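Sequence design from tokenized structure. All designs in this work follow the same two-part layout: the structure record, then the generated sequence. An example of the structure record is given first.
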């Protein structure tokens, strides 16, 4: 096998694991009613089963990125897949909600171990800007495929007769096992050894502070708000205290030239800072968009879960279709493609506000979802290219870990904030008018976020992305 072929084969292995983590998010959403019935979980417990995965994932991403630099990205990637397989088996055979909650948290941690290594490997494997742009484009396609596949697999597997398991919802976790085994075997064969030779060690005290602070922060915006204002406020204040302590701890160690968890050199790169700000605003919009859209479709338009799922599939089709072309467009037109994509999303949201208000526009409604997916595909995958471009190899793990953390963290913030506005505007009303009013305000917040992204892209230097290839 030639070095060129081996490089792209390694990328296929990395993306297969990335696909698995995306599918696992959407597949459980479809299976929630079956899981709740099978485990006899309360509403609070079922909410925790879904959100605890995000807590485990987002809290360990930076640590895992740094660990990949120090111990080796291949080792961390393979360890993450192996633990993901074990925790999937644990989720499959969990009979009590408490056990399933613990397994879901550990599943999120295992995902955090492998997730930063994917972007780090792309940075290392594809040194040329053109090759990296195509690789990031495939990374984006994987997100779209995972979104659709999760919806389909969730509905299909839950509908099967239980044969090897007691209840059909267990299949959604068991399906991960053969994929993990294949990824481990192929990863051992085709992934190169990669680490940062200049990495001196791990900052264990910093790791503890960051992990604890992020757990408290994400808890406050996901679970804390459902438990009550007191829980939310205490958790939020505690997270701010711990994260402030983490910042001072990192500054002190940096002054003494000791090993730090977060390499502050990253923040000297203007493109990296702008990419972080842009992806933060974009994820504030995107995750909350799907959250309030699902609520509106099922509560406002009275659609079934499967009917509502078709809209997500339409969005995914648009995403995948555009992802096949965006790498070439980006290489030719540069950041103009991203600006056009943001404008397309804003246009799609405005059209949705119109078409979802009027009856008899089913085809046009699906068309606006496809348009939304096209716009997202033109924008989202390439924030990573902006963030990682120009960074040296020794910063790859730290940068990818921080980038992924910001993605998940602000996605959770978006759901918490926009979701709270949505529920407030419904005001207990159980009719189309109240839900449409809430949908209108939620989409208004999303448009404001997109305008912020648009301004950042206008200010972004042309050199941040390749043009005129």
């Amino acid at each position: 096998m030639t070095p060129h072929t081996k490089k792209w084969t390694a990328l296929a292995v990395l993306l297969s694991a990335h696909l698995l983590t995306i599918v696992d998010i959407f597949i459980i959403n479809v299976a929630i009613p079956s899981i709740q019935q099978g485990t006899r979980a309360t509403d609070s417990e079922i909410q925790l089963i879904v959100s605890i995965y995000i807590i485990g994932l987002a809290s360990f991403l930076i640590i895992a990125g740094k660990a990949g630099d120090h111990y080796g990205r291949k080792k961390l990637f393979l360890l993450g897949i192996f633990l993901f397989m074990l925790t999937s088996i644990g989720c499959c055979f969990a009979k009590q909600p408490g056990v399933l909650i613990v397994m879901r948290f550990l599943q999120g941690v295992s995902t955090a171990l492998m997730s930063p290594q994917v972007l780090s490997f792309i940075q290392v494997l594809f040194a040329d800007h053109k090759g990296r742009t195509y690789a990031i484009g495939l990374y984006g396609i994987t997100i779209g495929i995972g979104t659709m596949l999760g919806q389909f697999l969730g509905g299909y597997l839950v509908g099967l007769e239980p044969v090897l398991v007691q209840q059909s919802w267990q299949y959604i976790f068991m399906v991960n096992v053969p994929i993990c085994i294949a990824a481990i075997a192929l990863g051992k064969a085709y992934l190169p050894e990669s680490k940062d030779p200049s990495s001196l060690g791990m900052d264990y005290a910093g790791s503890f502070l960051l992990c604890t602070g992020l757990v408290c922060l994400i808890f406050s915006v996901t679970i804390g708000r459902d438990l009550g204002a007191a829980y939310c406020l205490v958790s939020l204040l505690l997270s701010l205290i711990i994260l402030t302590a983490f910042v001072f701890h990192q500054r002190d160690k940096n002054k003494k030239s000791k090993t730090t968890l977060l390499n502050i050199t990253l923040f000297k790169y203007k493109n990296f800072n702008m990419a972080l700000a842009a992806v933060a605003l974009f994820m504030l919009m995107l995750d909350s968009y799907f959250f309030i859209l699902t609520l509106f479709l099922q509560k406002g338009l009275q659609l079934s879960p499967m009917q509502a799922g078709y809209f997500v599939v339409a969005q995914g089709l648009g995403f995948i279709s555009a992802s096949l072309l965006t790498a070439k467009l980006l290489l030719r037109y540069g950041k103009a493609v991203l600006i056009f994509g943001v404008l397309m999303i804003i246009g799609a949201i405005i059209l949705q506000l119109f078409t979802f208000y009027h009856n008899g526009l089913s085809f046009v409604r699906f068309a606006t979802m496809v348009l939304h997916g096209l716009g997202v595909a033109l924008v989202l995958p390439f924030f990573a290219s902006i963030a990682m471009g120009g960074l040296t190899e020794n910063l790859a793990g730290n940068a990818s870990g921080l980038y992924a953390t910001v993605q998940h963290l602000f996605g959770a913030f978006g759901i918490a904030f926009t979701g709270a506005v949505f529920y407030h505007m419904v005001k207990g009303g159980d009719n189309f008018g109240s839900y449409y009013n809430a949908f209108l305000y939620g989409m208004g917040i999303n448009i404001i976020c997109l305008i912020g992204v648009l301004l950042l892209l206008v200010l972004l230097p042309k050199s941040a992305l390749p043009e005129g290839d």
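The two ends are 29 Å apart (CA to CA). We note this feature because it recurs in several other targets discussed in the main text.
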